[in-house]
Write a structure and sequence with these properties.
Layout lengths: L2 H12 L3 H20 L4 E3 L3 E8 L2 E4 L6 E4 L2 E8 L1 H6 L2
Antiparallel strand pairs: 1-2, 2-5, 3-4
Length: 90
């Protein structure tokens, strides 16, 4: 499912226009991004939690040359599904 298909399904289930559903989806994703950028977490009970995972700096290898390279520290988004969400898939 892509973004337009999700927007269409949201509009049908909520009984709103596709434009309104698209705006709601965009607002939700922007709110999640902004919260994670500030170092916070977003928890949706029954669905899951979005958090930021910190990756330490490390030394890696260039697979082509075998040369050691430095990989700097970074942050990555992480999603942990909630219990109800996992159970719904079984």
């Amino acid at each position: 499912m892509n973004k337009s298909e999700l927007t269409e399904r949201m509009a049908d289930q909520a009984g709103i226009s596709k434009t309104a559903a698209g705006a709601a989806l965009d607002a939700a994703t922007e709110a999640i991004k902004a919260t994670l950028k500030k170092g916070g977490a977003v928890t949706l009970v029954g669905f899951g939690a979005f958090t930021v995972s910190k990756r330490a700096a490390r030394t890696g290898r260039n697979p082509k040359t075998g040369e050691a390279i430095k990989i700097k520290a970074s942050k990555a988004p992480k999603f942990t599904p909630g219990k109800a969400f996992k159970e719904a898939l079984n």
